[in-house]
User: Fold Copper transport protein from Tolypocladium paradoxum.
Amino acid sequence: MSFSPRHEGHMDMDMPMGGSTGSGSSSSSSSSGHGSMGSMMMAMVFQTETATPLYANSWTPNSAGAYAGTCIFLVVLAVVARLLLAAKTLQEARWLDRDARRRYVAANGKVPLAEKVARDPDAKRMTLSENGVEETVFVVARKSTVARPWRFSVDPVRAVMDTVIVGVGYLLMLAVMTMNVGYFMSVLAGVFIGSLAVGRYSSVPEH
Assistant:
């Protein structure tokens, strides 16, 4: 008869211990969760720590000189990115001129371009006059965009250039995502220097 109260007391003693263990684990998990959230929030603000890793933990500047060298590297990398964009623009212009020269090659049995344009019902005959000299021309509106043919000497080179440009761009983006002020300003300085040097070769048409 005395077993029942003793058993109930044993259970009552065990319950607080289990409850304290559960509350301790929940409090530790909540504290770790708050710590991770706090670290994420801290990573989203600019900071000026010189010992900021770049691309790998082994690339962590441990002195002012190493930090300055890392910033110079980012400046050069941003300049290279602008040079690659300018080089691609110039190369695209060369490829377009080469395709245009191919269009005007005469072939036996083919109607000359002048006669083909003259027979086009949408062609409008106009006269241009400059310094007293008149010249008759035909104006033809392009109806749709003509896709340039795939060429082994052009498209693989274009693919390689695009891949390199995107890769360098992602490296610069990762440097900015460290939220280090020095790294961020170095990327901007490199973009400024590169645009100042080769910005005139931009692919944006001039008006």
